Amino acid sequence: SLVLGIESSCDETGVALVKSAGQGVPQLLAHALHTQMAMHADYGGVVPELASRDHIRRVLPLTRQVLQQADEVLENVDVVAYTRGPGLAGALLVGAGVACALAAALGKPVLGVHHLEGHLLSPFLSADPPEFPFIALLVSGGHTQLMQVDGVGHYRLLGETIDDAAGEAFDKSAKLLGLGYPGGPALARLAEFGDPTTYKLPRPLLHSGDLDFSFAGLKTAVLTQAKKFEGTPCDQARADLAASTQAAIVEVLMKKSIKALDQTGLKRLVVAGGVGANAALREQLNAACTKRGVRVHYPELELCTDNGAMIALAAAMRIDAKVEAPQARYAFDVKPRWPLDFATIA
Ligand code: ATP
Ligand code: MG
Ligand code: FE
Predict the structure, then answer these.
(1) Using CA atoms, how far apart are residues 103 and 222, in angstroms rounded to an integer?
(2) Can you give the residue ranges of the Gcp-like domain (predicted)?
(3) Summary mean pLDDT of the chain
(4) b vs e for 277-286, b when ≥16 Cβ sit within 10 Å of the residue's Cβ?
């Protein structure tokens, strides 16, 4: 069957079409994305009302584009999937509203997807897809979690951040270094020219004994250092601080992932979410996992950050695994706050 997926939880409008044979990994036929990054950059962060309005402008043109790319027509779509949460309420409502309206017009059922389940399952679209069970390190702009994933819809939270997300730590540190928004990729680029051992930054909760994270203190430490540069702008010092910041975040993420693998005895790690695109993180995880005989799987680089493909995929996989059936009921709601381990076993 053909599943159309619509993502609009934050500042990316994503639409995709996947084809499912009822078993095996669904096939991605086409996907299209519009990022609002440039629009929000002037404000140093996402402006919710502007995000909603832009989703409205983009979602139908992107849908047409995807159908054309896949050489398909709307009438052949069997299920319309959308991101039900978590995310910005107004932004989510656009995707949900359009998805339900399209489905109602076509007389086809809908399925509301958990955004993090989309991130979590996105590596199944890569050239080297994982197998269940695995440990998932979910590192995005709003979340940092370690989960045990036993199958579609079977997610157990092992640990998570008690304050800022890893992506947020990248973004906020980047801002302090005078880099643009979103700062993660910019900080990573600057870090390439720096020495990561220059500044001794905190590794919060590294030895806490559990699998939780904390990144709020790191930002303060970066601020303290950055202030010392004022009046004496030195490019090397900024690069060194960027590298030291990245090293602190990456070390904690790597060591806690290894701890989760050791605790559960699992031999497979899946990394998902925007920070999963970070080269230093991939390098450290690859090295540590190779040593332990653990296989690591990542989404394709373009599917690390938000996209429609992961939403269509998650819907198709839920339907195929009979975890959830799509519904021909168009009174929709969105869930701006929605914990994954509660929500996904329907
Ligand atoms: P959530 O999924 O939790 O709702 P989100 O959808 O905003 O949050 P993603 O789109 O998955 O998050 O990822 C965006 C985050 O990833 C941003 O914080 C961004 O800075 C970070 N990021 C992207 N690329 C890199 C990189 N190469 N290095 C570090 N961070 C990165
Ligand atoms: Mg985004
Ligand atoms: Fe996301």
Answers:
(1) 49
(2) 27-312
(3) 95
(4) bbebbbebbe
- What's the pLDDT band for 228 if we cut at 50, 70, 90? confident
CA of 78 to the centre of ligand 1 (A): 31
| Pick from 46, 43, 44: nearest CA to 12 | 46
Residue 200, Ramachandran bin (φ over 0: left; ψ between -120 and 50: alpha; else beta): beta
Q: What is the pLDDT of residue 114?
A: 96
Report pLDDT for 344: 52
The Cβ-side half-sphere exposure at 221, using a 13 Å CA radius, reads: 18
Q: What's the mean pLDDT in 260-266?
A: 98
Q: Cα(271)–Cα(80) distance, rounded to whole angstroms?
A: 27
Angstrom distance (rounded) from CA 61 to CA 63: 5
CA atoms within 13 A on the CB side of 265: 0
70 lines ligand 1 (CB under 6 A): no
Give 274-326 as a DSSP string.
GGGG-HHHHHHHHHHHHHHT-EEE---GGGTSS-SHHHHHHHHHHHHTTS---
Residue 47 CB contacts under 8 Å (≥ 6 apart), including other chains: 40
Give the torsion through C-alpha atoms of 164, 165, 170, 171, to 10 deg.
-70
Report d(CA 109, CA 12) in Å as an integer. Answer: 24
Whose C-alpha lies nearest to ligand 1, atom 16? 274
Residue 134, beta-bridge partner list: 149
Atom 10 in ligand 1: residue holding the nearest Cα: 305
Residue ranges at the known binding site for substrate: 138-142, 171, 184, 278
pTM of the model: 0.95
Look at 93-107, 175-189, 254-268 and tell me which has the smallest mean pLDDT: 175-189
pLDDT, one tens digit per residue, over 157-198 is 999 999 999 999 999 999 999 898 889 999 999 999 999 999
Residue type, 326: P
C-alpha to C-alpha distance for 139 and 100, rounded to whole angstroms = 30
Q: Give the distance (Å) from ligand 2 centre to CA of residue 141.
A: 7
The rounded Å distance from CA 21 to ligand 1 centre is: 31
Q: Is 173 in the pocket of ligand 1 (CB under 6 A)?
A: no
